[in-house]
């Protein structure tokens, strides 16, 4: 088993692709097919989709890694080689994992300091019946950027917008499409979002490079979305008043809302624009928010803990729930802190095991070479990535896996074509993150439909941002727009 003479390495900068002359394409695909089969079984035949508990997807990835190891042993790859490749993969995601922990801390401290509630408070006040649909897109986008979660945005402000819009006589499918379009725009572009952190971690780029590069396709897509909803708003006769006074009063009664709170996100954004390291920028954001919580939200801190200092520590580390007069707002004003990021972090770690073993046995090289044989052009590679993400959203029914598996499997192919990793991370988000909500049996589609009370079929056509995003990324690839290449050292 220790004979590795059939293995060779192809170096691309500091990355290594392992090739195994004894391994054929059929054997390379065995771990992938079995992995997909286990995921499909969990989705379609396990009632609560928790075959092995809350961390079922992580366990399935580990099982996939074990199957890949068995294929490697059969093809004379040593255990030490596999362990070494897994370790290299773990080292490559150390910084992204630290960023994820800081993102959890940031979300918690921005909540107790009143920053997120202030964004919600001022965002709601831009509502006007004449521009209700585009305003809904903007409000959902702002809140989703602030919270990093499309789910909490839909479950709170989304429900309120559905109620207000229905009273105005606007079809619920249109409202849901506007909310979902804005929520997923924010989910893509927010540094607080787990998927926005996951995609660059899989592709091998950093968070803020990913966000900046993703803006090239995302901004035109959201602009088109806003134009379409503005046109739709002009075709609808609206009556009544958009009464949000109860929501505003509930926020105002719970938090000390002041424009001064926007200093913290302003400083963090300025640091990002000055290319400060993400760990530093996010760390400053956490510390400043903690200070602002002491200054502006003393009553809030006392309501969640007997000690103000302990309330801050809890907001950084564990779950924090702030009760308001409105039950739905209370759901929005909650955060898991660093603890809330553990599921995603464990998923990354397990994905690195699967990917590391697949690297070590030469399976990734075999699969990517076969992909390149079919996708001979740059556009073909982008199209293959989009199809893979869509396929996993349909079969695996989970947006995280639609990012993790193609991200790991296609990473070497992009490098082999000389494409910078942000091309892959952008394509993963454009086709994996946003399309999950368009599939009824996907966790995202089922959740959004249930929360908003609108069938996927009713909002599908109006979720313009979501189905336009993969089309936009393919257009950029077809016309060679903003396709960054690797600069050889």
Describe the structure.
This protein is mainly α and 489 residues long. The protein is 71% helix and 3% strand. The protein contains 24 helices and four strands. The protein has helices spanning 25-45, 56-74, 79-92, 94-112, 115-124, 132-147, 150-167, 172-189, 194-203, 207-234, 245-254, 263-273, 278-296, 298-304, 308-317, 327-332, 342-360, 363-374, 378-395, 399-416, 421-433, 443-452, 456-459, 464-478, and strands at 7-12, 15-20, 320-321, 334-335. The strands form two sheets. It has a two-stranded antiparallel sheet. A hairpin with a 2-residue loop joins strand 1 and strand 2. Helix 19 packs antiparallel against helix 24 (464-478). The two termini are 36 Å apart. The model is unreliable at 1-5 and 7-15 (pLDDT under 50).
